[in-house]
């Protein structure tokens, strides 16, 4: 099964299967994984990177996607490529002589997903080829809001599909500040997703409640329903 994702920005890990260069890895950025792996295996003449040209075939084994923009993904790519030049990854130890490149890059990735600002992004860790899958080191598992997925992914253009209308009674007051909701699109209440829960709140009220224990942050990534 191939998962289709709109507005795709991903950072991937390649693994070389050429016996001469077996075990080498490459980190890159793409907006189209299917096209990009073909470019890498096609060489520089087909748009592949010079570091991978003539050394294939390559497998695209892992991709991190869900970045809000290409800039965010490119910054992630650079830090993954140059962990010892990134001021956010000074705590990551260098690769030992016995550590394979593949294992080292996975270790760096594990640290990155635990480090700000990346630890607060809505990322998905996707293994494109399950035979390469590794467990994250103990204590360095991805944050709970980052799912680990399996299978191929395809970038698709944004589809202008209108969401179906659902007739639900609009609550009158915010469950947190107790003020009345105003008519209009600028004051739409947020609801709890649990069936039977009547909690409804302003977005800003819910955000402040979720960030009560994280005052230095602007956007929450999780929280307990006040209801």
UniProtKB/TrEMBL annotation:
Primary location class: nucleus
Family: Belongs to the SLX1 family.
Stretches assigned to the GIY-YIG domain: 7-92
PROSITE patterns: GIY_YIG
Xref: Gene3D superfamilies: GIY-YIG endonuclease, Zinc/RING finger domain, C3HC4 (zinc finger)
KW Membrane (keyword) present: no
Cellular component annotations (GO), alphabetically ordered: Slx1-Slx4 complex
The protein's role, per its UniProt record: Catalytic subunit of the SLX1-SLX4 structure-specific endonuclease that resolves DNA secondary structures generated during DNA repair and recombination. Has endonuclease activity towards branched DNA substrates, introducing single-strand cuts in duplex DNA close to junctions with ss-DNA.
Sample GO molecular function, one term: 5'-flap endonuclease activity
Name by which UniProt lists this protein: GIY-YIG domain-containing protein
Keyword Glycosyltransferase: no
Origin: domain of life: Eukaryota
Cellular compartments annotated: Nucleus
Subunit annotation: Forms a heterodimer with SLX4.
Cofactor: a divalent metal cation
Keywords: DNA damage, DNA recombination, DNA repair, Endonuclease, Hydrolase, Nuclease, Nucleus
PANTHER family attached to this UniProt entry: STRUCTURE-SPECIFIC ENDONUCLEASE SUBUNIT SLX1
Any one Gene Ontology BP term: t-circle formation
